[in-house]
């Protein structure tokens, strides 16, 4: 199964990226995700379920520790997409 996660961390600071936002960026950029799009108002990551769920766990723990007071996230199953965690790219999708 492949997943796409969209998330934001708060509080926002338009003048300077807060510590929790920087930590979120470190988490997703260091994970072995297939796609990462980090922006000022939202972030999107994509990959196999195991990798994405591991990254989400780290994201939640580390951004809360870094001062996030709210984390909004949406998880979507990517229907029909091949599973990158299965040899040969064939998945249950």
Overview of this structure, please?
By secondary structure, this protein is an alpha+beta fold. Helix content is 31%, strand content 29%. It has a four-stranded antiparallel beta sheet with strand order 2-3-1-4, covered by helices on one side. It is elongated and about 40 Å long. The termini are close together.
Write the layout of secondary structure elements.
Elements (H helix, E strand, L loop, with lengths): L1 E9 L8 H12 L4 E4 L4 E6 H17 L4 E8 L16
Antiparallel strand pairs: 1-3, 1-4, 2-3
Pick out its properties.
single chain, 93 residues, alpha+beta, 4-stranded antiparallel β-sheet, 2 helices, 4 strands, 29% strand, disordered C terminus
Summarize the structure in short.
This protein has about 90 residues and is of the alpha+beta class.
Number of helices: 2
Order of strands across the widest beta sheet? 2-3-1-4
User: Mean of residue pLDDT?
Assistant: 88
Number of strands: 4
